[in-house]
């Protein structure tokens, strides 16, 4: 791994811990996996000696985006008219799509993960959590291992959310028997993955999060024992909450999902939930009090949400918020950059009906960087400042797309949106995407291999 000097950056979004601000006309120097310095004229200093110089004239340099919720395997069911939410009820859709999921092979999980990770990297994402809850029996137990393999190939910082479902369809879940595990099976593989892959050291590229899929599709014991395992191992907890299941949980257990999970200890600073669009203000106050975080996934709101997630209320109550793409079953792309713009625009759409004001545009960038990093328990990523990981992306703003926008780099991702691939994405001091290529990887060959694997699925 070499050192790099990004010389003559038009703007760098720096953050010393008090929030992002813009530094104009500076250089950025990396040292192995970390940022060494951000200052003018670093090329003239001894510390830059030997660094590979990259002309960053016209570039806006941002901290790498951090994706806190995804389902990579679902990239193999994208853009299919026969699975269109607008043509099927939720129950009809689940009955149609889960049998497709149950056909996936180990190779499908590997190539679908490469597909999602590649798109994330192209659009500035440097860290991603995948909530992998699909374990067809014939595919075996090494699906997350193959995801770590894919992450290493592309160089992305990967947090594996090892999910699972334990409640049979005969007892009220939506999961086919071919995709069920026992609680013991699920926990045993979580422990195996933690012992083999989890690295809690600074600049770690591999971590594991215990992530039972959702309380509506698992036994109570699955969640109780997940809490015990995660806290014994010192790892985080994650699940789906507040996406329409609260009335079902209340009918089964006499309380809505937030109270049900809190009662089991599945809440706290080491826990974050995905979605939460149906939560009441009282429930949001409980999340804030316990320190439980929320991975907000804005794009599924267009297709499956009955209301827009109340991000202004979360901000007002002090709920920790990060950003996620969600899976391709409810968001056909893997583009967290696009989610920043979507998140902001959705809140503006419903602003008149909210009791709290829409957060500033820069806050949506913050959700995707420092906010998401905090959800993942990371203090070494999400900000550009010396000593932090050299995770960043850069865009050349000397294009017609950015005329009239360059006065406010911090608001640009939320208000304007960045529609094209980055000019450079760096992870842990390694350039993983530049000049339209993945260095050392034949993208066309990688895509052809993924398409060939996709062709094995019977739709």
Describe the structure.
The structure is a single chain. Helix content is about 35%, strand content about 20%. With about 450 residues, the chain is α/β, with parallel strands linked by helices. α2 packs parallel to α3 and α4 packs parallel to α5. The radius of gyration is 21 Å and the shape is globular. The chain folds into two domains: about 110 residues, Urease, subunit C, domain 1; about 300 residues, TIM Barrel (Alpha-Beta Barrel), CATH 3.20.20.140.
Any descriptors?
Amidohydrolase, Metal-dep_hydrolase_composite, 4-stranded parallel sheet, 459 residues, hydrolase, Amidohydro-rel, TIM Barrel, Metal_Hydrolase, alpha/beta, Urease, subunit C, domain 1
Q: What is the number of helices?
A: 14
Structural class: alpha/beta
CATH architecture of the largest domain: Alpha-Beta Barrel
The rounded Rg comes to 21 Å
**Termini distance?**
43 Å
CATH structural class of the largest domain = Alpha Beta
Q: Report the sheet with the most strands, covering strand number, pairing sense and barrel closure.
A: 8 strands, mixed
**In percent terms, what proportion of residues is strand?**
15-25%
Mean pLDDT: 95
CATH topology of the largest domain: TIM Barrel
Structure summary, number of beta strands: 16
Contiguous runs where pLDDT drops below 50 for at least 5 residues: none
- Overall 3D form: globular
* H/E topology pattern: EEEEEEHHEHEHEHEHHEHEHHEHHEHEEH
Percentage of residues assigned to helices: 25-40%
Assign the CATH superfamily of the largest domain. Metal-dependent hydrolases
Number of domains: 2
